[in-house]
Structures are given as structure tokens and as C-alpha cells.
Design brief:
The structure holds 2 protein chains of 2 kinds. Chain A is α+β, with helices and mostly antiparallel strands. Helices cover about 20% and strands about 35% of the residues of chain A. Classes of the chains: A alpha+beta, B alpha+beta. The interface of A and B includes residues 17, 290, 316 and 343 of A.
């Protein structure tokens, strides 16, 4: 039986098409993926991402305990700041990619992918050597307001001065009278906020945001637009672009690994890999012949199979067929020629600089 | 839901066929484009290609998914809708008109009579939605 967020009825009332995503019945689109994608790029979009999970570490030693599980460093950021990080297994592969929030050294809050909620919690619980985590997944709903108009819209609903919340910072305060964690983060490449709130207040917050944003062109946006927006930024999707068998170094996410922070699960394997050099790397490519690359299509180099497409779409903003995939290190350079096997036909592609989308 | 034109024949896979003199124009139905979402790419058959009733002759892709096109009848492709190369969204905007896909010279015109009529197709879609 698929799970539902507190906004399920609201999605249905808006005419959303619902799909199963990681065991959750979620809106994939309300009207059109492209229209919702463009609303986020040009005005604002509102996403229900309440299916995401939350895990908390609380008490003396919370920071040290959480920090030993992730690749990024909670020790080098201030209270009120967050980091994007890998949660790795001993081989250096991704158990998940997460955002870790530092409320204080005694209070760390981790947002995890919906598809990995149970796995992540079990992993963190069994590998935490000090403070043990608590699963808070059912105690939070999450709405994402994204787009160039997002800040203006949210500001109308909160007394908190949002211009003081910089990217990857957060604060606590009321939005439309609903107590929220207001985080300047997102998964779209646009400015915006992710708002964590109690599930029984999610509908009130959702409706207030839709109303406050309607004059600005804010639209409810589904998982379809979320996927095309993140693909244009080459943001990794767990299960597609990263998984247990791929490391941050291979995923071109070396920047989320802080080598000077001390030990963390997976570090020894990463050090070894760094020394030996990675043999494959996640790149972005554009099609040079007709066709759209899709997850699972073979990637060819010099006629031989060298990897496969991990994500691909027709980018509504870049207006090109774009893809992401692992290729041998020697092909991981701008301009390298690839081919994508699309239903038995080899179509030319070229490795390009990412993100695919940059504000004009 | 949009009305399915009475003068067309339909497949269970949501293609339509319209007899126009010696040839038959083929496209996908309003229900199909609705289910697909924004069409962003059409892999058109080549002019001169042979198509077989019930077999795939191309694909239509939306932002999220790839769907096969199944030929409503057998024959030879004599014309394809080149406008779809630059404007695949015509399939969403006008599935029974400007969003046509190709024109086929039927090798067995009687195949057309085995397809669903508008009423039967409308019922099929309604029952699947039920």
C-alpha cells in the first residue's frame, strides 16, 4: 500500500496525475511538466517533498557522531548552516546523499531521500559510535518553493528577514503562522526555500503559499519538473546517478569530501581510490544527433560499450537532449565523443561542461 | 475528454487511422497524448519504410517516457509529418490534425475495417480509466 503525504487530497483536487515514487503516491504533474519547469525557472514553483526522510542526532556529542558518518564537515560550518554530503558504506559507495543541518553542536538534523529512509536510518543507527540517531521522518512535512520569485513570495508570509538567510543557511520561524525550519536550499538550480513543518500544518502552509504566489506566477509543480530541473543542473538522483557501487570521486562530487576533517565511514576506501586514480567518472553530455538519452541506454566510446546513461531528458530550458552517465576517465573531458545506443541505433553525443543550464 | 472523431478508426494501443482516398493517415489519439504528457521527440518512420499492422514503426517521447507507435495497418510509408521534428508539441495541441504522424499506402485496405470505431474506442478508454 503506497504511502501518502498530508497533501494527497490537495494534489488530487488540483488535478495532479499521481505516480508511485519509492512507495509514495506523489504528483508527477498537475498540468504539464514543461509548464511547471518553466514556472520554476521564470517565476516560482511549489513542490510537496514530504516523502523525504528526516533523522536527528541530539545531545552532547551529536555533531561528532553525525560527522563521522558523512563526507562533508559539520565542524567547519556555523550553527544555522547546512551541508550537502555523502553517507558512504565502507567501500566508499553512496548509502545516500543527504543534507545535514547544524542547529547546534548538540542538535544535527539530516534530510534523506525518500527511497532510502529505512536503509539510511538503520545504517546510521548501527554505525553511529556516539549519539544514536532518532527517526523523525513522520514528524515533518516538507514543501519546496523554488524560483526567482520564491523569496518575495515567502517573505510576504513571514516576519523573518529572508535576505539574512544565505544559500545553505536556515532559520526557524513562522511562515503563514506555521512553525517552520526555513532552509535556503533546493534541487532546481534556482533560488528558493525548503520549508519543514509539522504534517498537520502542511495543508495550511501549502494553501497560503499558493495564494500568496498566484499573482507572481507560482504554480504547483510535480516530480516530473523536479527531475528535469535537477537534470539540467546535473544534480545527482540517488538510484540513477549515484548508488552503493559508486563513490563521490567517481560521481564528480569530490567537493563534498573534506579530507582534513578526520575519519568517516568510507574514508579509507576513498583515499585508496584517490591514490590509484578513478577509472570512471560521471559526466554530462549533449546529443549531437536526434534522440533522447534515457536511464539504462548503453554509452559507446569508439564503437565499444563503455558505460550507460544514468539520467537523460529533453531539457526544457536548455532546449537540448541532455544526459548524464559514467564513462572511462580518459573520456571524462569536455569535447570527448560518445555515442548513445538508442533502440539499436548509435547516436552521436559529446561530453560538455556542466551544469547544462546557466542563467542567461 | 476530447471527442474522438467519428470518421476515424482506432487501435487498442491508441493510434488512429483516417482513409483519405488511396492512402491512410496515422496519428495518436487525444487520450494517448494526454497520457503521454508533453511530447518532446518523435522518432518518425522513413518514407518508403514498410510497416506491419500491430508492429512498432516509431516512438513518441514525452519528458519522462518513451512510447512505441504501433501501425494500425500494413503498407508502405509514403509521407511523414516533418513539422514534428521541430514541433513535437503539435501532437499535444492537435492530435487529430496538425499532429498527424505519417501517411501509409495500405497493402491490405480491409485491415482498416478490423479496427475499432469511435464508439468502441471511447468505451475502451472509459473502461480503462474506470
Amino acid at each position: 500500500m503506497a504511502r501518502r503525504t498530508p497533501l494527497y487530497d490537495a494534489h488530487r483536487a488540483l488535478g495532479a496525475r499521481m505516480v508511485d515514487f519509492a512507495g509514495w503516491e506523489m504528483p508527477v504533474q498537475y498540468t504539464s511538466v514543461i509548464a511547471e519547469h518553466e514556472a520554476v525557472r521564470n517565476a516560482a514553483g511549489l513542490f510537496d517533498v514530504s516523502h523525504m526522510g528526516e533523522v536527528e542526532f541530539r545531545g552532547a556529542g551529536a555533531l561528532a557522531s553525525a560527522n563521522a558518518l558523512i563526507t562533508n564537515d559539520l565542524g567547519r560550518i556555523a550553527d544555522g548552516q547546512a551541508v550537502y554530503a555523502g553517507l558512504l558504506n565502507e567501500s566508499g559507495g553512496f548509502v545516500d546523499d543527504v543534507v545535514a543541518y547544524r542547529f547546534s553542536p548538540e542538535h544535527i538534523f539530516v534530510c534523506v531521500n525518500a527511497s532510502n529512509r529505512a536503509k539510511d536510518f538503520a545504517w546510521m543507527h548501527s554505525h553511529a559510535t556516539g549519539v544514536k540517531p532518532v527517526d523523525r521522518g513522520d514528524e515533518w512535512a516538507q514543501l519546496a518553493v523554488q524560483g526567482p520569485r520564491a523569496a518575495g513570495i515567502v517573505q510576504r508570509l513571514t516576519p523573518l528577514p529572508l535576505d539574512q538567510i544565505k544559500t545553505y543557511h536556515f532559520a526557524q520561524g513562522a511562515v503563514a503562522g506555521v512553525p517552520c525550519v526555513i532552509s535556503r536550499t533546493g534541487y532546481t538550480g534556482e533560488d528558493g526555500f525548503e520549508l519543514y513543518c509539522p504534517p498537520d500544518r502542511a495543508l495550511a502552509l501549502w494553501n497560503a503559499l499558493l495564494e500568496a504566489g498566484s499573482a507572481d506566477g507560482l504554480k504547483p509543480a510535480g516530480l516530473g519538473a523536479r527531475d528535469s530541473l535537477r537534470t539540467e543542473m546535473k544534480y545527482a538522483l540517488y538510484g540513477n546517478d549515484i548508488d552503493d557501487a559508486h563513490t563521490p570521486l567517481e560521481a564528480a562530487l569530490g567537493w563534498i569530501v573534506k579530507w582534513d576533517k578526520g575519519d568517516f565511514v568510507g574514508r579509507a576506501a576513498l583515499e585508496k581510490q584517490k591514490q590509484a586514480g578513478v577509472t570512471r567518472k560521471l559526466v554530462g553530455f549533449e546529443m549531437r544527433e536526434p534522440g533522447i538519452p534515457r536511464h539504462g541506454y548503453p554509452l559507446l566510446g569508439g564503437g565499444a560499450r563503455v558505460g550507460e546513461v544514468t539520467s537523460g531528458t529533453m531539457g526544457p530550458s536548455v532546449k537540448k537532449a541532455i544526459g548524464i552517465g559514467y564513462v572511462p576517465a580518459e573520456l571524462a573531458r569536455e569535447g570527448a565523443a560518445l555515442e548513445v545506443e538508442i533502440r539499436g541505433r548509435a547516436a552521436k553525443a559529446e561530453v560538455v561542461k556542466t551544469p547544462f543550464w546557466r542563467k542567461p | 475528454m476530447a471527442d474522438n472523431p467519428k470518421d476515424l478508426r482506432y487501435t487498442k494501443e491508441h493510434e488512429w487511422a483516417r482513409r483519405t482516398g488511396a492512402t491512410v493517415v496515422v496519428g495518436v489519439t487525444a487520450h494517448a497524448q494526454e497520457a503521454l504528457g508533453d511530447v518532446v521527440y518523435v522518432d518518425l518512420p522513413k518514407v518508403g519504410a514498410a510497416v506491419t499492422a500491430g508492429a512498432s514503426f516509431g516512438t513518441v517521447e514525452s519528458t519522462k517516457a518513451v512510447s512505441e507507435l504501433y501501425a494500425p495497418l500494413s503498407g508502405k510509408v509514403v509521407k511523414v509529418n516533418q513539422a514534428l521534428a521541430d514541433q513535437p508539441q503539435l501532437i499535444n495541441q492537435d492530435p487529430y490534425g496538425k499532429g498527424w504522424i505519417c501517411e501509409v499506402e495500405a497493402s491490405q485496405p480491409a485491415e482498416l475495417d478490423t479496427l475499432l470505431d469511435a464508439d468502441a474506442y471511447t468505451k475502451l478508454v472509459a473502461s480503462a480509466a474506470g
